[in-house]
Amino acid sequence: MDALTGESNIVYDARGLVEPNADVPKVSSIDGEKAEFDAQNLTTRQINLELRWLINEQGITDVTVKNPGAKHSLGVGLLTRCKITFDGSLGYFGCGIIDGPEVHVKGRVGWSACENMMSGCVVVEGNAGSLTGAAMRGGDLIVKGRLGARTGIDQKGGTILTMGSVGSMTGFMMQRGRQVICEDAGHGLGDSMYDGVIYVGGKVKSLGIDCVPGEWTDADTEFIDRKFRIYELGTPPTFQKFVCGKKLYNYDNLEASERKLVL
Amino acid sequence: MPGPTTDATRAEITVCGIAGIIYKDGHHNVGQDMTRMLQSMKHRGPDSTGYALYAPPTENVVLRYTTANTTTPRDYEFQDRLKRNRAEAERRILGLGAKIVSCAQETDYAFRLTLDYTGELKTLADQIEDISDCEVLSLGHSLEIIKDLGDAETVCAQYGLEQFQGTHAIGHVRMATESDVDISGAHPYWAYPFSDIAVVHNGQLTNYFQWRRRLERNGHRFNSECDSEIIAVYLAEKMSEGLSLEEAMHESLDELDGVFTYICVTADALGVAKDEMAAKPLVLFEGENMIALASEEMAIRAIIDHEIDTYDPYEKEVLVWTR
């Protein structure tokens, strides 16, 4: 009767974590400044420990991770310039809070990839899930497939470029930065955005509140051409430009104490 | 030193997980495949695990039922009650003119019967569920619902699902948030009293009580307090009115409120629907010989050993595959 009376066999530590082992596996093959390891039988925590050990302690600048297996939270919190290749797909929260790395994902990424990314670039060969680039602050995120809903929600900087389409509420509450969408966009594009620019190459199902068409300038052409050239993406399609209508624009960049002085 | 945690602690890191698989080329070891998929998402829901497995259809009716739940008191009379409930259930089945072709007892409280029965499934289900603590998990010519507490490997071993041959299946790992941790609260849900229809769901329905009252007025019963249970009955009722599975699922996107992704299966089809906010995840793989979908890609990769291309369906999307 254990199944009826017991709970489950999962062991959690006091904080609810299931991977309390903090030992670096040290399984990489190292060749000069390059390293490679197979992640198939490693946990998320072990993979990230191995990455940090290689980059921060062994001076490695180029790491290839084989068989990432769509595990979650891989490659997060890397704060140095280095090159990382994931030879496969990532699960949720991949490459979050990174500052500097150049990441190449040969498969796809799940939800919330590159959340809070600060600088560097991430190139994804496949598709990406929802919430990609959420609260992103800087750097380039290039997705060669399609993106899910709420892409770049709360984006604060940087560039998100997809060769495919995006889901609903893309650019929701976007505050700065650019999004380049080569195909279609779902409902509520740029809803409640404060600032920033969204370029769409295909159809837009509907614009969100306070998102309006913007005036095209030479700077827009130069920006898009430059990104397509850097990442070898071919000839860009014709884009429509969308910006904040600023009807809801209800904040300035003054701190509360500064505002008191000014007003 | 590992210590106990509460649901609230785990709620920060886990939520329910759903999975589905349909083969295009006959039947496969679907019990084993679904176990691998669900076990890889164990972190999304450690409370209970459930399967809706579809074997090749038979002339007989397959009945899965339980004679106790986790809430049944474990007093001195518990074992006697289990025996009494089983005997009474079998007496009522025979009383309806059904012939018991085979009977397998899989746990102290869970049974699988094959019946030679041509009467109303509703009558059969109602007769069994009229017995205290008894619940019909599934009825049909192909569908078999198995659900219990624990992770997928535990439930698979307990019910001997490793060798289950079938054509398609759905599964669920549950983290209980709003209703009890028991077998009634576990998914999948059979679409009582409709044959061979089941649903798994990740999300919340905010007009659950309205729909429950409407469906109860139409004569349907609900065994749990779980909002997911109404989806199965809702869809089955729509289909009984003449809609196709796909049409019924499209209607559900307008009539069911909340955030949800659900998978519905019938004897020959599997469909998935996402709400208009696409707030709950689902990753989809469409291969040459199979369609596999799950809350997380790692579940799909648990049964496919080569590199694959997957994507997330968009908001308000309904996709149906027929065998």
**Over the alpha carbons, how many angstroms does the gyration radius of chain A reach?**
21 Å
How many DSSP H or I helices of chain B? Answer: 9
What gap, in angstroms, lies between the N and C termini of chain A?
71 Å
Question: How do the strands line up in the largest sheet of chain B?
Answer: 7-2-8-1-14-13
Return residue spans of chain B where pLDDT drops below 50 for at least 5 consecutive residues: 1-14
Percent strand of chain B equals 25-35%
Q: Could you say how many structural domains of chain B there are in total? A: 2
Number of strands of chain A: 12
Number of helical elements of chain A: 4
Q: Spell out the CATH superfamily of the largest domain in chain B.
A: Aminohydrolase, N-terminal nucleophile (Ntn) domain
Q: Share of helix among residues of chain A? A: 10-25%
Would you kindly provide a written description of the structure presented here, covering whatever features stand out?
The complex is a heterodimer of chains A (263) and B (323). Chain A has 263 residues and is of the alpha/beta class. Helix content of chain A is 14%, strand content 23%. Chain A has a twelve-stranded mixed beta sheet, covered by helices on one side. In chain A, strand 1 and strand 2 form a beta hairpin. The radius of gyration of chain A is 21 Å and the shape is globular. Chain B is α+β, with helices and mostly antiparallel strands and 323 residues long. Chain B has two domains: 232 residues, Glutamine Phosphoribosylpyrophosphate, subunit 1, domain 1 (4-Layer Sandwich); 84 residues, Alpha-Beta Plaits. In chain B, 28% of the residues lie in helices and 28% in strands. Chain B contains nine helices and 15 strands. In chain B, strand 4 and strand 5 form a beta hairpin. In chain B, helix 7 packs across helix 8.
